[in-house]
Amino acid sequence: MENYVGSKIIKAEKVTFRKYLEIKYGTDVDMSKSRHYDLDDIVYIVVYPPIGGKDEKPYISMSPVEVFEKAYRKIEDSEISLMLGG
Fold first, then answer.
1. Each residue of 73-83: pLDDT tens digit?
2. Is 38:17 a contact under the CB 8 Å cutoff?
């Protein structure tokens, strides 16, 4: 196998696990099925941009705070324009 590294700009913010479930699955989600997290645990909700066409929706995921903060750092708007060449 070969080694690869990739990068993408994502949107993220700290929320409760309950809020993550509501955003990802809607307010009708059965909150009792959460086995790995307490509903009041703080996590990062992560929104990945759509890969396909303009009609595709962004992918929503979550990450434990410790894992997210080891893998990502916040970037400023000025850094984004430099990365995108504009």
1. 888 888 777 77
2. yes
67 or 57: whose pLDDT is higher?
67
Say which residue the tokens 């504009």 belong to: 86
Distance CA 26, CA 23 (A): 6
Tokens representing 59 are: 């992918």
Tell which residue, 6, 4, 33, has the closest CA to residue 21. Answer: 33
Instruction: Tokens for 61, please give them.
Output: 């995921």
Separation of alpha carbons 30 and 32, rounded Å: 6
| H helix intervals, 1-86 | 17-25, 65-71, 77-83
Q: Average per-residue pLDDT in the chain?
A: 86
Smallest CA-to-CA distance from 40 within 25, 55, 21, 53 is with 21
